[in-house]
Each structure stands twice: as structure tokens, then as C-alpha cells.
Amino acid sequence: PPDPPPDPPTTAAATAATAAALLLPLPDGRLSYVCGACRRAYMTLSSLRRHANVHTWRRTYPCAFCDRVFALAEYRTKHEARHTGERRYQCLLCWEAFLTYYSLKAHQKKQHG
Which residues form the C2H2-type domain (predicted)? Predict the structure, then answer.
């Protein structure tokens, strides 16, 4: 039987993206890890490594509602909430619910100071 085709360079691409990361200091003294491929910043190296999957060829998490496929399950979950209207982020002060974490934080800042 013929040899199976080689795997796409997922590991190499992820390693390259991680290796090209920049380590930047924040005003409070902490460090952020910046993706060398897209310049997105992360607070931990493990988060940056997980993110590196988005720059690879492997997309293994399909949306149940459309044709989009995601590199990370959490990205798919957030995307699917747009289809379902699920509001997963709830304000603990007034119990209003929001589609995104950023909407919740903006609400809390505006409404609750």
C-alpha cells in the first residue's frame, strides 16, 4: 500500500509562531507574550501556545450552524453563541446577561462604575 500523505506542518507552524513571540513589559510590571505571527498579546505562555493553533492548517472544530471551522473549541463555542443568541456572561450586580465578555465589562464600567 502507498505511504499515507504527510501531516500538514501544524506542529512546526505552531512552534514557529511561539518562537517568534515577543515578550513585552506591561505598565504594572507584568509581562505579556505577543504572537509573532499576528501580534495578539497573551498573559501566559501557555495561552500563546494554545493560540498558535490558529496559525496552523488544522481546523478540527466545526460550527454546528454554518460552514466555519475553528482551530480551538473555545473559539467555536463563542462563535456558535452568535447563532443561538446565548448570553453566557452575566452581571453579578444586576443579573443582565451579555453575548460577549467585553460587552459585560463595558456594561459594568458604564452602569456600575
Answer: 33-60, 61-88, 89-113
